[in-house]
Amino acid sequence: MENNDLQNLELSDSIKINQDMKNENVEMSESTTDQYMQDAGIIEISTDTSTLESELQTELTEKSLAETKQFVEKIAQTHNPETEQEYNLLSREQLVAMLEETVNAEDVSSIRAKVAMIKISLLKKEKEEKDIQLNNFLANGGKKEDYQAAPDPLNERFNAAFNIYKEKKSRFNEELERQKQENLVHKLQILDDIKHLIESEEELKKTYDAFKSLQERWKEIGLVPKTEINNLWQNYNFLVEKFFDKVKINKELKDLDLKKNLEAEIELCEKTEELLLETSITKSFRQLQKYHKMWREIGPVPQDKKDEIWSRFRNTTEKLNERRREYYDNLSIEQEKNIETKQALCEKAEQIAELVIDTTKEWQGQTTILNDLLNAWKTIGAAPKKQNDELWIRFKTAIDLFFNNKKEFFGKLKNEQVNNYNEKLNLCIQAEAIKTSNEWKRTTEDFIRLQQEWKKIGPVPKKYSDKIWNRFRAACDEFFNNRSSYFSNIDSIEEENLKLKNELIQQVKGYQFGEDNNENLKIIKDFQRKWMEIGHVPIKFKNDLHIEFREAINANLDKLKISPVEKNTIGFKSKFEAIAHTPGANQAISKEKSFIITKINSMKNDIKLWENNIGFFANSKNANLLKEEFLKKIENAKEDIKVLEEKLKFLQEVK
């Protein structure tokens, strides 16, 4: 074939092949970069592009369609909403540390998506922190124009790490571009080699083997500059077909090759149709892109089957694309409903957070309601990311406010309960101090008073509630059981006490005292102590018995010539010596001391008044009688004061 004929043939066939390729690529043009990115779950196409979108778009402008798909598929495998949520859960410190570790990777192409996601999360968190700092500055009275963000060491670390990535990426791109140029040279050489085969008159077997070898080399060579892709592809396909025509390859061999290609395309059609049953829209779309790539790599098919098989493949692709569009339309509607539902939950949570709650029961009830709202939130699907994040912040703010208020309430309640516990513990100690007392009337009144005070005190911490109550109840029960037991046998007990007191009176009357009055006083005190330890007697004998005992004691005191002061304080001392080491003694002694001091001060005031009044009496018989009466009163009062002072001295020394 002459060169001019070959050129004419190349032109006409090139137009035809170009048209075929255009037909084949019609679906792929509909599923361009934006669709790849959307189905990978990475971006949503909008006029407000994110940092990741911008970087990806830059990458896409530098790559061929095949390379773009490879990049997007790789991104899709490593980026999804769950992964993004995981990045958002990390602190800025953790994100910077992750970036510093990530940029150490040798293969920069393997970390593009990760670096982009880290950067997005960092910028988002940095903005949130700056907004918080600005709001705090404004809340403290500052002006927006005066606000200056504080230097952030994390930014320096981030910039240093990101510069490493950019340098590596730059070197990677330079190397990639150099490799593309080399690949272009190799492919152009293969085209020249195929042309030589077309013009060669070598035997069929040798020519065909050389051709197959060139085809394998063509497939093995990597990417070429984008501007050369279509031209290379058209020339390659044109020369492939011309090779078969030129060498007049065996029709059976050619038909066999065409048949294999047809079978491969039929298999792809079947696999593509199976995608209609795939429930995951994203998964089915990714797989469809792979099938389109495989389709283009399959060689020509019989001419009479070409349109039919392509229509089958294209129709299935259209159905998948339509299903995908319907899915995203429905998803948009569903997301709008999710927004409305989440807004309602936010309003309900805010209402609960603003409630003024005063009881534990009400706090528990509202906590249950709020937890139900949180569980309901978890069951609601996602909304558009920006609105979803805003609603979550609003919902979480209401939840945090509620639980902060709850924490504050129970903190105060805990302090009150601890105070209540200490008060009830003090009541237990008082009850236990008097539970064995046999002064039934006074102790009964004391227990009634303690029980009334117990009722006035609020609740205690739950873990101590039963324990402290059982302790108090046990002391009360012990006393009232003893009291019941005593009064059930009171007649026999009082008769026994009557007998004991009569015997004690006889001992006092018949006792022979020695010469040592200090020892004698101790003996008398011991008699009085024993008298007090003996319980009640029948009421009809009480006064007579007491008088007889006092007369016996006084008779002995007279015989022993004990001073009036000592005589008047001996019974008092015996009484308080007997209770000195009993529970509640300090309180009783303190009360008695206060009484005596008050009494002494009152009597001293009376003496002063009486002494002043004596000066006003005239010298007359009646006046003298009255004066003597006042002098007698003054003398008696002074004696009483001596007795009281002795008692006070004793109380101050008693332990």
Sum this structure up briefly.
Helices cover 82% and strands 0% of the residues. By secondary structure, the chain is mainly α.
Write up this protein.
With 655 residues, the chain is mainly alpha-helical. Among the domains are: 414-488, no CATH class; 489-562, no CATH class; 565-655. It has 24 helices and no strands. It has helices spanning 3-24, 26-30, 33-39, 51-61, 65-78, 81-89, 92-102, 112-139, 153-199, 204-220, 226-246, 251-274, 281-297, 303-353, 360-379, 385-434, 440-456, 462-488, 490-510, 517-533, 539-560, 564-579, 585-614, 621-653. α16 (385-434) packs parallel to α18. The longest helix has 51 residues, at 303-353. The radius of gyration is 55 Å and the shape is rod-shaped. Residues 1-82 have low confidence and may be disordered.
Q: Look at the structure and give the mean pLDDT.
A: 76
The secondary structure category is: mainly alpha
Large-scale geometry: rod-shaped
The biggest beta sheet reads:
none
Q: Radius of gyration from the CA trace?
A: 55 Å
Strand residues, percent: under 5%
Number of strands: 0
Span from first to last CA? 138 Å
How many helix segments?
A: 24
Instruction: Provide the succession of SSEs.
Output: HHHHHHHHHHHHHHHHHHHHHHHH
Poorly predicted parts = 1-82
Helix content: over 70%
